[in-house]
Write a structure and sequence with these properties.
Length: about 500
């Protein structure tokens, strides 16, 4: 295992995986097989941004929603949905596509970052560094130690060694700092703008800076508690938090979304709509739902939390997150592993085949800022106002009417600011409501970090006393990089017993 001692480290030139299909990327490949390092960033960027986002919106989203009590399914039907998830059958094949896709599909970003093009592509390079850090953070959060120094190398580095997870986090924070400085300090007279090649921000570099600052804040909050027992890490975290006191973050209405030109055609739909929605050309037709839409629905725990049963406050987001199936008059939940049919995914999540895909929401950013201000880690802003702005942004994004919700919930424990003895519990619980369905993996990671929402039930059909803390290294590593991965001696129990370095609670 390697340690990254120089936090000014950046990944070296080259790619481990060089090609991608035009159906994945939504841009055309050269029919004569031009290799990727001969292509300019304008050609590479749309695919480099688009391809990893599909994993975030589908595989990672679905995993997170089943690892916490957000999604359920009828476990008694044929092809019982989420049986492995609810039994916690974690193996080296369990959701291995997360590792395989993110490790490979961030290689195109590295190509943009490291290649010397001869022109001023600082905007492309800076945005690519921020976006790559966003995904590598998730790789650490889900797996711990990962190959980083050696990843995306050519030649003799086909078997990348693993780096210490704490060091990778620090290096990613440094990459974000470098990216923001690169964007801010580039020569605007010679810089080549990203324009429509940027299918996320449309070339708006101020938004890329806000996104970078917000990702960095999320990382610093994630590791803050762990840093208190390490003087070196604590010094870095404190310094980085101080640098954010006058920074711009994603604010109300500033969702980070992606849309490379989604359409109602097969393999070109928004990935979430394609996996959890309807067949191509059949959007909204209940008889042509995808298999995942037929099986995915809310848990009883979530439904009762939002319909007023648990806390006496009715939350209108429930009707946007989910919708009754045929024969149901109200939204129904199910336990994870039970035999009832839950309601289906609702109109606030399934809008159209062309809908934007969410990378990071304004509401998440506001919840992060609220937590940081509440803990005294940021000096500007009002924690309660940021918290309530986050809830308002959540309602707005889902198309729900907020009505008197903020007043009704304010004095209620776990969902309102004034009524919650533990403000962090209110923040994370509201984040769980908000991101369930949009970024499920974030809700699982935040539950692991904080233990909130509290009293969340385990699946009916698991014998495990606690939720998994991580994923296991995938089969692809044991077959293709066995000398490096085998030193960890992982077993099934590793997923439940060995926390990620920031998990100190």
């Amino acid at each position: 295992m390697k340690h990254i001692y120089n936090i000014k480290y950046t990944l070296s030139l080259a790619l481990l995986f060089l090609t991608f299909s035009c159906s994945d990327v939504l841009v055309n490949e050269d029919p004569n097989g031009v290799v990727i390092n001969e292509l300019p960033p304008e050609v590479i960027l749309p695919g480099a941004l688009t391809v990893p986002s599909s994993t975030l919106m589908t595989t990672m989203n679905g995993l997170g929603n089943t690892m916490v009590a957000t999604w359920s399914g009828n476990a008694q039907q044929v092809q019982a949905p989420y049986f492995e998830e609810f039994q916690y059958q974690l193996t080296t094949d369990f959701y291995s596509g997360i590792w395989d896709n993110l490790m490979a599909r961030t290689g195109n970003l590295t190509q943009i970052i490291e290649n010397e093009y001869g022109d001023n592509y600082d905007y492309f390079k800076g945005a690519s560094k921020i976006y790559r850090a966003f995904y590598f953070q998730y790789l650490v959060d889900l797996y711990g130690d990962i190959p980083f120094t050696d990843i995306h190398q050519r030649g003799d580095l086909l078997f990348p060694e693993y780096d210490n997870q704490e060091d990778v986090y620090v290096a990613l924070i440094n990459d974000i700092n470098d990216a923001i400085a690169q964007i801010q300090n580039t020569d605007t007279n010679t810089a080549i703008g990203m324009g429509t090649n940027d299918v996320i921000m449309g070339g708006n570099m101020d938004m890329w800076i806000k996104f970078g600052n917000t990702v960095k804040l999320r990382m610093l909050l994630r590791i803050y508690d762990a840093a208190q027992s390490s003087s070196d890490l604590q010094s870095i975290v404190n310094s980085e938090l101080a640098s954010l006191n006058n920074a711009d973050f994603l604010g109300a209405g500033e969702n980070v979304t992606i849309n490379p030109g989604y359409s109602d055609e097969e393999d070109r739909m928004n990935p979430f709509a394609e996996v959890f929605g309807y067949d191509p050309g059949q959007f909204g037709n209940a008889s042509n739902q995808t298999f995942s839409n037929l099986r995915a629905g809310p848990t009883t725990f979530l439904v009762e939390f939002l319909n007023g049963t648990t806390n006496g406050v009715t939350d209108a987001r429930l009707q946007r997150l989910y919708a009754p199936r045929g024969g149901q008059t109200t939204i129904q939940g199910n336990t994870q592993g039970g035999g009832d049919q839950p309601s289906r995914i609702g109109p606030g999540l399934l809008i159209s085949p062309q809908q934007d895909g969410y990378i990071m929401t304004a509401s998440e950013s506001l919840f992060l800022q609220s937590e940081a201000v509440f803990k005294g880690l940021l000096s500007s802003g009002n924690a309660k106002n940021l918290f309530e702005s986050a809830i308002q942004s959540s309602f707005d994004r889902l198309g729900a009417s907020i009505g008197n919700y903020l007043n009704d919930a304010n004095n209620v424990n776990t969902i309102g600011w004034d009524g919650s003895a533990d403000k962090l519990e209110a923040i994370i619980t509201q984040k769980w409501i908000d991101l369930g369905g949009t970024n499920g993996v974030e809700t699982w990671i935040e539950f692991t970090r904080t233990g909130y929402p509290s009293n969340m039930p385990l699946p009916d059909i698991t014998n495990r006393p606690n939720r998994p803390l991580r994923l296991l290294y995938p089969t692809s590593e044991y077959t293709g990089n066995s000398a490096n991965v085998s030193i960890y001696n992982q077993t099934v129990d590793t997923a439940f017993d060995l926390p990620i370095f920031w998990d100190v609670n």
